[in-house]
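FORM 12-B: Structure-to-Sequence Request
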């Protein structure tokens, strides 16, 4: 790590191509806000009258080379940002002996109601922080006229509700894990998973329990951590959603032909674990799933396979084997426990 050497930054040029005379192009207005290194003012292009924002970074605040490098990096980043309606547009940067100046697009402030709800949502205290239900019932959310320049979109409410439901789902999965973890070591052994499944009403053969552990055991230690267990169950819940099934299908369909061909299936599933037994596994999968026997898997065949329990290794999960059998799906069908 480089040492933070002190520097006489007031006499040090920070920018690569400083243009001190550009400061005269602007008239400085009211203060808009303050940060660790500088103050942001409203300013005006004296030639066009356009309102902008000018961030003034005092050189007396830049006490080390690292501080100066950070400012240089910030300037280079904003210079190269593309023009986009959701990004603040950068105009120019210049400096004098006193400060570095960044002139950018002036962003109009949001309403007090919007600030209040965001502030409440970001409250670090869970006892006073707004719940998802309270957010959905908030007057600003309910009455969009309070925020005429902001379109929530028709999917926002449903996304928030999905997030709330998923949080509840994860909590129930955690409770299930704690129930199965009889020795409280934060790992599920083969015996604990087998016995735990039996306790919740699923008598599962030992072969299926082993396959389930091998499929979800990311670190390969022969047991399931709490994280691995939650990831596995959440993943199995998500694959029943058409959006995730479509993403998974496109991952395997490398040539975008609309079908998963034998070699695409083989490459995806055997890349990390080749071998004669697994070669036969790929043939068995193709034989079982390819209903019309055209030696390729359509999306409908893929979907039918996923929803009936034959779950492949997904791109988004680092599972170590090709197959999770129907026991994983059964775990999702516990009425009142995993809904």
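FORM 12-B RESPONSE
SEQUENCE OUT:
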């Amino acid at each position: 790590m480089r040492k933070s050497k002190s520097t006489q930054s007031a006499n040090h040029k920070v920018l690569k191509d400083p243009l001190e005379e550009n400061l005269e192009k602007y008239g400085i207005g009211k203060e808009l806000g303050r940060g660790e290194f500088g103050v942001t003012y409203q300013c005006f292009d004296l030639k066009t009258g356009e309102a902008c924002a000018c961030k003034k970074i005092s050189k007396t605040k830049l006490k080390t080379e690292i501080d100066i490098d950070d400012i240089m990096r910030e300037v280079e980043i904003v210079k190269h940002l593309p023009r986009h309606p959701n990004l603040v547009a950068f105009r120019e940067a210049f400096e004098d002996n006193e400060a570095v100046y960044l002139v950018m697009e002036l962003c109009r402030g949001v309403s007090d109601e919007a600030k209040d709800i965001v502030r409440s949502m970001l409250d670090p205290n869970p006892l006073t922080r707004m719940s998802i239900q309270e957010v959905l019932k908030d007057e600003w959310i309910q009455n969009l006229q309070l925020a005429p320049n902001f379109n929530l979109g028709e999917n926002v409410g449903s996304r928030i509700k999905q997030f709330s439901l998923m949080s509840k789902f994860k909590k129930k999965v955690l409770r299930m894990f704690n129930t199965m973890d009889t020795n409280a070591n934060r790992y599920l052994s083969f015996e604990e998973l087998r016995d735990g499944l039996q306790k919740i009403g699923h008598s599962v053969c030992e072969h299926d329990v082993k396959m389930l552990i091998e499929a979800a055991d990311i670190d390969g230690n022969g047991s399931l951590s709490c994280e691995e267990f939650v990831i596995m169950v959440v993943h199995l819940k998500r694959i029943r959603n058409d959006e995730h099934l479509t993403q998974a299908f496109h991952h395997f369909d490398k040539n975008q032909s609309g079908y998963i061909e034998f070699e695409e299936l083989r490459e995806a599933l055997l890349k990390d674990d080749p071998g004669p037994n697994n070669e036969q596994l790929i043939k068995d999968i193709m034989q079982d799933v390819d209903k019309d026997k055209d030696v390729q898997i359509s999306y409908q065949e893929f979907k039918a396979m996923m929803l009936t329990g034959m779950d492949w290794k997904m791109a988004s999960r680092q599972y170590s084997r090709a197959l999770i059998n129907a026991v994983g799906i059964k775990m999702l069908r516990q009425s009142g426990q995993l809904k």
